[in-house]
Amino acid sequence: MPGFELIGKEEQQAVNEIFTSGSLFYNGKRVKQFEEMFAQYLGMKYAVAVSSGTAALKTALIAAGIGKGDEVITQAFTFIATVEAILDVGAKPIIVNIDETYNMDTIELEKAITPSTKAIIPVDMLGVATEVDRINAIAKEHNLVIIDDCCESLGAEWGNKKLGTDYDMAVFSFDNGKTITTGEGGMIATNNLDWYKLCIEYRDHGHENNPKKPRGRDTHRIPGFNFRTTELNAAIGIQQLKKLDYIVESNRRNYKILKNEISDINGLKFRKIPSKCTPLCDTLIFNFPTKNVATEFVALIKQNGLNTKNVPDAIEWHFAPYWDHIFDKFDFQNGDIWDSTKFSSDMLDRSVAIPIMVKMQNDIILETGSIIRSMAEKVLNN
Questions:
Q1: Phi/psi of residue 69, nearest 5 degrees
Q2: pLDDT tens digits for range 332-351
Q3: Cβ-count burial of 216 within 10 angstroms (0-12 exposed, 13-18 middle, 19+ buried)?
Q4: Which residue(s) pair with 169 in the sheet?
Q5: Active site includes 140?
Q6: What are the Cα distances from residue 279, in Å, to 113, 127, 154, 314?
Q7: In angstroms, rounded to a whole number, what is the distance separating the alpha carbons of residues 125 and 42?
């Protein structure tokens, strides 16, 4: 699962070098290196490092010109940051259901488009791609910008390309629970030079970094914000990025072993994976016939030392109908959003997400599989 499992001497040495260099927080050298390495890993032209995944979302929306009066379509199962970023630029979030991939339902996406729709934010939840080709086709037909929220899926692939690279922009998170971590941080990736420049400027109070001007007299064209990241974060990120292939390979190996251990349990249904997607495999999701069965199962596995990942343990922060504290910001009534996302709610209520750790040894994986099998068969046979 996350890069925090592999924080070690390489990251410590990189940070120590900054302390002895005399440039503790921001001179851009390591930030630029991290951006260049990240863009190269993805196979994209540009990458912009920022202070968080949430900052990446907002900065990308600003660069794409999304603002007041615009509608942005996203999905009900996400992290609250996706909707917060849309609201923070003055736009209106339009929430659609997920399908059996646990990602955006493309049929509902198309139905939700209005003359005010300007962008789509599909969210690659828990390591699995959205239906990239279909979403791209819809966006092209309606002239919409796509910003891929790939915060939870760095390392996944679509076809023979890294996930996120087929969309206009993709954003990533490096918080402590993500595939690689810088402690906190984010990245925007794009092939669009104009959007790249706007992202660079917005994260730095609007500075154009004009080479003909000293910073104190720098030129500017847009208002900005301070979403810069630091040399410390970038130094850690560089070392983590070197470990990314190993993290992904370990996830996939451990996922395969665990899924094979429980794949024949009658009554357990696994997440649908789009045919062109090679998942990150840091999470194994399955569902039961009813909510009551799923609830009983979760209680039993917790008694046996297992935990879940987001579903159901953090569902209140990952499913839109729970966010009544911001409903007034986008004209939702509590009952309306629960009604409109009933399919998503029903599926998530019956679902369980199991984390896959990078350092899981075979005996631990087999023990985990044994617990899941025993508890699943117990609740399914009641």
A1: 90, -10
A2: 665 688 999 999 999 999 99
A3: exposed
A4: 147, 190
A5: no
A6: 28, 5, 10, 22
A7: 18
Predicted TM-score (pTM) of the model is: 0.96
Tokens of 132: 């990239």
Nearest alpha carbon to residue 184 among 244, 152, 230: 230
Nearest partner of 60 among 150, 184, 162, judged by Cα? 150
- Written as six digits, the tokens of 378 are 């117990």
Task: Tell me if the bond preceding 312 is cis, omega within 30° of 0.
Answer: yes
Task: In whole angstroms, give the CA distance from residue 133 to residue 117.
Answer: 19
d(CA 101, CA 274): 7
* Single-letter residue type at 208: E
Nearest CA among 240, 252, 231 for reference residue 3: 240
CB 88 within 8 A of CB 329: no
CA count, 13 A, side-chain hemisphere, 211 = 0
* Residues whose CB is less than 8 angstroms from the CB of residue 178 and which lie 6 or more positions away in sequence, other chains included: 2, 3, 53, 151, 152, 154, 172
26 pLDDT band (50/70/90 cuts)?
low
User: What pLDDT score does 1 carry?
Assistant: 62
Q: Which of 144, 143, 191 is nearest to 166 (CA)?
A: 191
Question: Which one is catalytic: 58, 118, 178, 243?
Answer: 178
CA distance 338 to 334: 7
Give the three-class secondary structure for 50: strand
Residue 20, pLDDT score:
85
pLDDT at 27: 61
Would you state the structure tokens that stand for residue 157, as one six-digit string? 């692939």
Instruction: Give the tens place of pLDDT for each residue, 360-372.
Output: 999 999 999 999 9
Instruction: Give the distance from CA 20 to its chain's centroid.
Output: 34
Selection from 194, 203, 226 nearest residue 46 by Cα: 194
- Quick check: 77 pLDDT over 90? yes
Q: Domains plus CATH for the chain?
A: 3-244 (3.40.640.10), 245-380 (3.90.1150.10)
pLDDT tens-digit profile of 198-226? Answer: 999 999 999 998 999 999 999 999 999 99
Mean of per-residue pLDDT scores for the chain: 95
Query: In sequence order, which residues have a C-beta less than 8 Å from that of residue 209 and are 6 or more positions away?
Result: 200, 201, 215, 218
Helix, strand, coil percent values for the chain (each to nearest 5): 45, 15, 35
